[in-house]
TrEMBL record:
InterPro entries: HTH_bacterioopsin, HVO_0513_N. Transmembrane segments: none annotated. Keywords: Transcription, Transcription regulation. The keyword DNA damage does not apply. This is HTH DNA binding domain-containing protein. Residues 160-211 form the HTH bat-type domain.
Amino acid sequence: MRYLTLTFPRTPTSETGNALIPGLDVDRGTLCNMNYLHDGTLVQLCRLEASRDSVVADLESWADAISYDVFDTENGDLYVFMHSHPTSELAELLRIVERHRLLVDLPIELGAESVTVRIAGASAALHDAMDDLPTDTAADVRIEQLGTYNPEIDAARSALTDRQRTVLDAAIDVGYYATPRTATIEDVAAAAECAESTASEHLRKIEARLLPRLS
């Protein structure tokens, strides 16, 4: 089983770029879950880095929104559960995934300028799905990675936010988890481009989420 990591641009002039979260003006977030229903509508659960007021305002003015619920968790994360009509571009992408029997690997990372999606399946199916992309979409999409899909590793990483994964990758790259340790929290913060206190807090939460899975 193989996977492809694809990046789609989010540009104001492109509906395709905003296809995964149309109507929401956010800089960072995570699409945690998504279901394409038989009636052609879509339900999504997103974790967003945005203010509640701005998200509610966007949802209120979004013509394709059917219903939504905005709520906070105990650790301060903002979540949105929404039921909507997908754009025609997103609907076509989901049909391609279904047609080629592929798996969308959640969560999906939502950035200020791009949406990063990983899909998994048989090598031939992935190749055929790329050939099946609409011309406009194929011209904009960027292939980031191709590799062997490891369900155990990917399931553990999916428990983290996109920012936590960035900090974890930085910690591994600089040697924070090497034996013996060859880097400090200062090195991690510099690599992740954040404050030392932020890096330390992220690593504490990462360890709290991942270590119980190993016991």
